[in-house]
Amino acid sequence: MKRVRLVFSGSGGQGVITAAIILAEAAVIIEGLNATQSQSYGAAARGGATRTDIIISEEEINFPGVTSPNILVCLTQEAYNQYAAVIRPGGLLLTDSRSVTTAKKTDAKHIGLPLYDTVMERIGKPIVYNITMLGALIGITDIVRPESVLAILKERIPPDFLAMNQRAFDLGLVLGAQYQCRL
């Protein structure tokens, strides 16, 4: 992995920005890579469009924005409609199969996973939806090691909620592992 450009997108309140921060911190603090993370919000705090750009690189990063991601994660139909066209040819498009119906032809590997349904069925609390998504992404790719993300979760998550977040991450890893691919 020389450089990976990611966009996580969804709606406010889904935790895509938190997931991006955790991923960037795992890359920098634990794995010694370079990373940037930036975000933009829609007009509404909750329910409005949310996008976060992450770049992880072995080399210096000169510009933090992502115009053509290797990996695009869309958790809502609105996010998919808005960003599907920008994915880099040969990239990875990860969607929640409950919320996103793909219609556009993209030159990307599309993986639709039942992220939200799995969280609700196995944990019953949507607050860890973002961590399940992050686990699925790590299960699919080799961006960072799972133990690096877990180390950051232990630092960021209050002790009372850590076990639930670890379980959500593990659920995502299992969902994603069946689709492993190298970037």
Automatic annotation (TrEMBL):
Documented EC number(s): 1.2.7.3
TM region positions: none
First-tier enzyme category under EC: oxidoreductase
Domain Pyruvate/ketoisovalerate oxidoreductase catalytic intervals: 12-172
Entry keyword annotation includes Oxidoreductase: yes
Keyword set, alphabetical order: Oxidoreductase
Pfam families, per database record: POR
GO molecular function: 2-oxoglutarate synthase activity
Alphabetized InterPro entries for the sequence: 2-oxoglutarate_synth_KorC (IPR052554), Pyrv/ketoisovalerate_OxRed_cat (IPR019752), Pyrv_flavodox_OxRed_cen (IPR002869)
Top-level taxon in the UniProt lineage: Bacteria
Gene3D superfamilies per record: Pyruvate-ferredoxin oxidoreductase, PFOR, domain III
Protein name (database record): 2-oxoglutarate ferredoxin oxidoreductase subunit gamma
Species per Swiss-Prot/TrEMBL record: Desulfoprunum benzoelyticum
